Amino acid sequence: MQSRQVLVLVLVSLTISDVRTKDVQECEELSHKNYVCYEIESFEQLQHFVQEDWQSVKIVNGHKAIESDDQILDKMSKLRQLDLSEAGGVSLGERGLRDLIALQQLNLSHNELDELHAKHFADNASLVSLDVSHNDLQFIGRTLMKQLSNLVYANFSNNAIASVEPDAFKGQLYLQHLDLSTNEQENITIGSNANLRYLSISNNNVRDFPWCRLRGLPKLEELHLHSNWLETLDMAIFYSLPRLRVLNVSNNNIYTIQRNLFVGPGPDVSPQLQVLDYSANNVKVLEDELFNRLQHLESLDLHYNQISKISATAFRGLTKLKSLHLQDNSIRQLPDGVFGNLISLQLLDVSKNNIKQISANVFGDRVLRQLSQLDFSHNNIEELHPLAFSSLPYLQQLRLGRNKLISLDIRMFAPLRRLQLLSLSENRLTDIERDVLDTLDKLSELDINNNQLTFLPATFELPQLRRIRIEGNPWQCLCLDELTAWLHGRGVSYASANSAYYSGRKALCVVTPLGQCIRDLEAVRAHRIVESYEEI
Ligand SMILES: *[C@@H]1O[C@H](CO)[C@@H](O)[C@H](O)[C@H]1NC(C)=O
Ligand SMILES: *[C@@H]1O[C@H](CO)[C@@H](O)[C@H](O)[C@H]1NC(C)=O
Ligand SMILES: *[C@@H]1O[C@H](CO)[C@@H](O)[C@H](O)[C@H]1NC(C)=O
Ligand SMILES: *[C@@H]1O[C@H](CO)[C@@H](O)[C@H](O)[C@H]1NC(C)=O
Ligand SMILES: *[C@@H]1O[C@H](CO)[C@@H](O)[C@H](O)[C@H]1NC(C)=O
User: Which positions make up the signal peptide (predicted)?
Assistant: First the structure.
């Protein structure tokens, strides 16, 4: 008994010491000239390890932080990259990293730093990339930034920065990426910078500001202002930002989109904007010719607003547009021609709205050769004009699930020769005719689950079919047997293991007193098959 307990104790202490081996201070070579050092408590200690030819060091500390003891760190003067993001905290003392005169990339992320001073860096520092994200900085001053005049990339995200000293970045001739997201700024006070391309002030407390505040950023291409408190946007953005290509104002409280927002850069010069993300705001109306000037726009995201009214000419002029997101709004009606002439459109999502009817001319009469994905699911569509999709012969995916369709017309699908995916789940279909199925000769996925189907035609082609969903219909059991035998024979998958229908928790079909599968709607009605299924 006694000796056995001793043995157990020994084993336990062995495993603990195993886990803790990294408690030992040591450095390992990761790749040629690149090292990782563990459990380093001070820059002075680090200096004992670093050799002349080392290029980069990453510090990984499990329990301690790294401190400066204000020694001269001349042995590290050739180091190019220092990653302290896993050092578990840094205090920079008086000298900081002043002796690391060759340092080009510094990662100070996740270190609880509340201040950063010019004295911590070499004069005329060669630093090109600085990541100080995830710290507690409150302020960015001019003297600090002046010391870091060679920066190309600066990431100050996830701090508590409430102010930036005006023109702090003015002297940074090479700065291209500036990330100030997830801070506490109310006002935009960046001032000017000759070369900045990317600026993010997303997830701050900005309420409103005129674009002219950004006038000093003539090369800016990407501006991220999402997740602030903006309610309106000032007019004429491109006068101030003539090169803007990406604008993200998602997740604010903006209640209109005004045509005069898109004015500039010159009366005859069209804006370069390619991506506009206006999602998750409170826009209610899309007016006439709203985006007319955005001839280079490729992606327009308006999902999750409160759009209920769209002018027939709202999207006019968007001849380069490739994706249009309108899902999650309150659209009731689509005016004739509203998507006409969007000749580059590849993807259109109008799901989760309140559309009852799609008329013949919503897509205009010109063939939209690029449109391959169309989503109208989750609306209230009862009336789908048989010619509604006649200008969309290149469609590959069509989603019409969760609507109120009762029947399908051969004319709806006859033009859709390239359709690969068709979802008609959760409608009220009672019958699908053989002609309709036979036109879909490229179809590989078909969803007809949760309708009111009791049978399918006795024979049909669907030569490419690989997957089908059929559950949730009041199939006559004999018809279902025929169908599943056919599906097995063709190697088409239909059962999904975790569905209540296939695990026996919900009924898959109705047993009828008839000796065969009845393929006649009148007879099906007379036998009240749908009603008996609903009673199960
Ligand atoms: C800094 O380190 C963090 C955490 O290791 C990492 O996610 C981030 O990409 C690094 N920053 C740069 C600029 O490489
Ligand atoms: C800073 O460095 C640049 C070149 O890297 C040099 O032209 C300039 O004179 C230096 N300035 C100072 C104050 O040392
Ligand atoms: C800045 O750092 C944050 C946090 O690590 C990261 O998510 C973000 O992508 C970085 N920004 C840029 C422009 O690289
Ligand atoms: C932001 O700017 C406005 C107008 O310039 C000024 O009235 C306001 O006090 C500023 N807010 C802060 C927090 O600096
Ligand atoms: C815009 O910001 C949202 C966050 O609100 C993000 O989900 C989306 O991907 C961004 N869009 C672009 C085009 O960067």
Answer: 1-21
Do 145 and 234 fall within a single domain? Answer: yes
Residue 272 lies in a domain: no
- Residue 442: give its domain's CATH number: 3.80.10.10
Going from the Cα of 495 to the center of ligand 5, the distance in angstroms, rounded, reads: 36
Q: What is the pLDDT of residues 424-445, one digit of tens each?
A: 999 999 999 999 999 999 999 9
Cα(85) to centroid(ligand 1), Å:
7
**SS3 of 4, please?**
helix
Q: Is the CB of 129 under 6 A from ligand 1?
A: yes
pLDDT value of position 535:
85
C-alpha–C-alpha distance, residues 498 and 121, integer Å: 59
State whether 375 and 432 are in the same domain. Answer: no
Kindly state whether residue 87 falls inside one of the protein's structural domains: yes
Confidence check: pLDDT of 532 > 90: no
- Number of domain units in the chain: 4
Please state whether beta strands 26-31 and 34-38 pair in parallel, antiparallel, or not at all (unpaired).
antiparallel
Name every protein residue with a CB atom under 6 angstroms from any ligand 3 atom: 109, 133, 155, 157-158, 177, 179
Range of 223's domain?
Answer: 114-255
Give, using CA atoms, the residue closest to atom 7 of ligand 4: 187
Closest CA to 321 of 306, 301, 307, 304: 301
Per-residue pLDDT band for 9 (boundaries 50, 70, 90) equals very low
- Binding site membership of 248 for ligand 5 (Cβ less than 6 Å): yes
Q: Check if the beta carbon of residue 331 is closer than 8 Å to that of residue 358.
A: no
Nearest ligand to the CA of 102 is 2
